[in-house]
Amino acid sequence: PPMIRPNDAKIGSSADSPRYAFTFTFSPWPVPLPLVLAVIPFLSPQESLFNHGYTKWFHFMSMIYLLSQNKFLSKFLAIMGTTVTLGWWASLTWDWWFNGRLAHILYWNLPWTERMVVVGPENGGLGTVVYNRFTIPYMVLAHVFDTLGHPALAAYYWSVNDWNLSKVCTWPVLISTYLLSRGWSFIHSYFNQGVVSVFYMGYDVYTVPDINSSLAGYWAPAYATEAATMIGLILLVHVLPHYYSGKRQQSIEQQSAAAKGRKQPTASLKPPPLSPSSVSLSE
């Protein structure tokens, strides 16, 4: 009989294996999204689970994405990160333009130890920002982390989606992102102030001074910038392309109709055939 070499036998094939045999593989990455959501309540005390700044919500959701690698969440966070970054810059610009304080909001919201170095303990850590050789390194470090945690993180989510506006700015993503923002405002307004509002304005999760005079000034630029960003994305992705597509189609139809009009048959320039009566007698 012919010799059977080891390589000729397909070990594990249907001919050699029993029918009840199966293969089980387990990969810990990415973590299933329901499992990630189930673990979140254990990351923070129950009474303060939701009572955080909108930026922290952005970072919490970033942790969920990094664990689950959910595609929809990457698009969601690209929009959320963009509105967080632009709104934050708008508030910083407002405070600098009207109060002459450049990035003081950032320094007032540093962790307590760093804030005591940069600002000092007077007025509950909301005093005058000190500029010297001891405080400037803390300021530089604060701006580095601020850049990494806002625009750089938002840019990462855009890069995951190939910087494609049409791919990211779908209606479900845009609507759910804006609803989350309004939900955050509602939760914080009711939890901290006992009022029903979809535009939170307070000092419970962010440390800001001049509560009675300029509180709205810190929040209004952020909300206005968020709304302008959402409207701009809707116009760029969903309105203007359809408008210009319709105009282009209309122009093509008009050109086609004009071309058909120019191709109408014209009268023949050949003389009519002579009848026998018109033949000359001389012929």
Written overview of the protein:
With 283 residues, this protein is an all-alpha fold. It has nine helices and no strands. Helix 2 runs antiparallel to helix 3. The longest helix is centred in the C-terminal third of the chain and has 52 residues. The protein starts with 32 loop residues before the first helix and ends in a 21-residue tail after the last helix.
Instruction: Report the β-strand fraction as a percent range.
Output: under 5%
- The stretches of 5 or more residues where confidence is low (pLDDT under 50) are 8-15, 22-26
Could you tell me the mean pLDDT?
Answer: 79
Number of helices: 9
How many β-strand runs?
0
How far the N terminus sits from the C terminus, by CA atoms, comes to 109 Å
Helix content: 55-70%
Rg, Cα atoms, Å: 34 Å
Structural class estimated from helices and strands: mainly alpha
Task: For this entry, give a set of tags.
59% helix; mainly alpha; elongated; single chain
Short structural summary:
By secondary structure, this protein is mostly helical. It has helices at 33-39, 54-68, 71-99, 104-108, 112-118, 136-160, 165-168, 171-193, 211-262.
